[in-house]
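PROTEIN FOLDING TASK:
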Amino acid sequence: MTAPPLRVALWAPVPPPLGGIGRWTLRYVDAAPAHGLDVQIVDISPRDAAFSERSAFRFGRARTAGRALWDLGRVLRRHRPQLCHVTSSLFWATPRDGAALALCRAAGVPTVLHLRGSNQFVEWREALPRLQRAGLDAVLGGATCVLVLSRELEDYLRRVLPGRRVERIGNMVDEPLPGAALLPPRGQGSAGPRQRVLFVGAVTPLKGVGELAEAVLALPDVELALIGGSGGAIDPERRRAMDAHLARLRATGRLYEAGELPPEQVARAYSEADVFALPTHREGLPNVLLEAMAAGTPCVVTAVGAIPDVIQGELALQVPVGDAAALRSALARLLGDPALRADLAARARRSVLERYGVGVVMAQYRALYEDLLR
């Protein structure tokens, strides 16, 4: 006899806007029935496409939080979930997500608090005044289990929150499907079509876009394709420097700016690039890196957040954060060595699908839920 589905309330954003957490939500919901999960979503999306590097309080999002908490209460009463999975980016969302955890506790429902970041949380918590840090820790401690993306954050939370249950499960990726070409034809260089470097994500300084544009500018016959929207920057000077590098690259005709694209279109873009670059300064576990690896595109990355866990030191080339010269050298090495690109691409694709495929990760969620309910 088949066991009844496990009832889960999912507190998470549903696109729009399209971001890493939103794409995770879509994958989770699509795969849930095959893993015996009956999911009721409480949508916490702000419905605001504007992105900023700085987390800030906004009255519109306070209204959204109130609506989400009302919806969660309704789901708890009507759906009677056995467990609640709460995704959180912390910062200004901490009071909202803490209130969601409190509602679940009052209803006697175990909770998974799923933190969608890594090194930015560590830096932020360490800089908080004592009372605010105690409030944050109370929210973290109010969950039955804190779920993280990186070994870095797992080790940190186990050290500063002794006795609390902390588990680590990565994001998930689909095996890419073939499709029609998305990006425009490559421009012509001195010896034929240019080589192409691809970046996918928010076009901001903290994603390393300034260093990437500077690096590509110094590589003749190489063009840069950017997929993603722009947003506000914490440091205006770094934003001006990024914009200046992009303007110089644009003037050479070696910059293609696609803006925001649907996930199915982004998935096709990876295979049309020679190299995927993610020189980000802070990260959780970037979906775009998993997608690039699954598409068989060799990668150049910075070792922040869960990126070292994903690439395991050998599945991509690593560069220091903020180092445009090192980034230029890594890109030149990879672009100039077809055998190295093919080797990295094949090993990375095999590894990422074995460890982060949708079926693999969803089975880990299901096992965690069952363990908590026991």
